[in-house]
Amino acid sequence: MTTEISLEDLVLTEDPIQQSDVFLRAFNTGDGAVFDSLYREDSISNLSGGPLTGAERTKSITELLAQKPRMKATYKRSYTAGDTMLVVADYEIEITGPDGETAIMRGSCSDVMTRDKGGKWFVAVDRPVPAEAD
Length: 134
What we know:
Helix content is 22%, strand content 43%.
């Protein structure tokens, strides 16, 4: 069952499949602010290839998404303990470089989500790991 996801009210839930849909929809907008709104203020993201947090994370996400990459993901599994959830997915990102050439990045991602006092889920750690090159 697919739930309509509003970009004006992105909410991560306890349903990891819906979370994957929200995450993908936000990423594929190309709007760094929309995607960054899914993260806790102190979250760590490795989308740039190294761990970034705060303003550096936001800047990196915004610059990456300005290139209008497209992501696909396949949910693999999740584990929940109280207000913390680990979600594992395989991903594929297609991005066009400044030279006009398209690159495909594939790998697996382990995302740690935490629930705030209001019950809303946010990304605490975003850890994509590229697949080994053939």
